[in-house]
Amino acid sequence: MAIYSIRDLEKLTGIKAHTIRIWEQRYGLITPARTDTNIRYYTDENLRHLFNIALLNRNGIKISKLAKMSPEEITAKGAAIAQNNPNPNSQIDALTLGMIDLNEGAFEQVFVEYVHLNGFERCMLELIYPFLDKLRLLWLTNSISPSHEKFVGQIIRRKLMCAVDQSTPRQDTPVFLLFSPEGESQELTLLFLQYLLRSRGMRVTYLGANVTVSDLKDACQTLRPSYVFTILQEPLPRQPIQSYVDQVSKAVSDSEILLTGQQFFVGPVNLPPNARVLNGLPGTLQFLDGIKVRR
Predict the structure, then answer these.
(1) C-alpha–C-alpha distance, residues 173 and 99, integer Å
(2) For the segment 158-181, what is each residue's pLDDT rounded down to a tens digit?
(3) Lowest mean pLDDT among 60-64, 148-152, 181-185, 268-272
(4) Mean pLDDT estimate for the chain
(5) What whole-number distance in Å separates Cα of residue 206 and Cα of residue 179?
(6) Quick one: pLDDT at residue 295?
(7) pLDDT the model gives residue 140
(8) Residue limits of CATH 1.10.1660.10 in the chain
(9) Angle at 37 between CA 34 and CA 41, to 5 degrees
(10) Fold held by 1-82
(11) pLDDT higher at 105 or 85
(12) In angstroms, how far is CA 27 from the centroid of its own chain?
């Protein structure tokens, strides 16, 4: 059983700590446990209950009315709203609950229903990426464990791979080569990019993670891609980014290099003639849609 501080609850639910205390003391909606030294803490049950209270309150039910409901009634009404409310914030709360409980069925239900209503691309952009941003914050503040992150990662990875397989490229479109450098971990983003490209009819090969410049050169000689795409979010472990970009530029020959990631915005990088920097996911989408218009 996990235990949480009031600050953990604030990060997980978005409800300010002082509001949680008011709901405790004035309305008796949450009852924290206490250690032998009288320090309060909260359980998974408290967290689930608070999520449902917050969801109902955001959907117009006053706290004074919620205080008169039984926990079972609050849970039932919360589940009904989460299932029928298309608002991304409500769905992100539902994903977070599924993650905390390691409940794959609940997590998948939210995902599948959002895809059904809005399509896979919008589900990733409107639901999954904001959820992952929240997950990174929770991970950095030790509010969740590595098991939660791995649980979420494997579900999203599986969904992305399935979506990639279901999209069919056209043979008269540019070839993209995607890779992740040594020491960089951006698998979910590159899988999503692979889906974005294939769903737009582009031909794409994804080399995976920990690709050396030598391996990249061999792949480019075989595939002769129009574009080579990678992400540099973290500092390179053994060389400056300028040196790495210059090496990649020579390795890809006549291909155009598409670069994105935090490392291109923290300091100056002199780009070779065959390279350009895209401003994150929005800039990448704009570039892809531009190719779609031009072809």
Answers:
(1) 39
(2) 999 999 999 989 988 999 999 999
(3) 181-185
(4) 88
(5) 6
(6) 41
(7) 61
(8) 1-82
(9) 30
(10) Multidrug-efflux Transporter Regulator; Chain: A; Domain 2 (1.10.1660)
(11) 105
(12) 35
Side by side, the strands of the sheet bearing 227-231 are 203-206, 175-178, 227-231, 256-260, 275-277
What pTM did the predictor assign? 0.81
Superfamily of domain covering 168-294:
Cobalamin-binding domain (3.40.50.280)
Q: Where in the chain is the domain with CATH 1.10.1240.10?
A: 86-166
Architecture field, domain 86-166: Orthogonal Bundle (1.10)
Q: Are 206 and 194 in contact (CB under 8 A)?
A: yes
- Check residue 143 and give its pLDDT: 66
| pLDDT value of residue 142 | 66
β-pairing verdict for 40-43 and 3-4: antiparallel
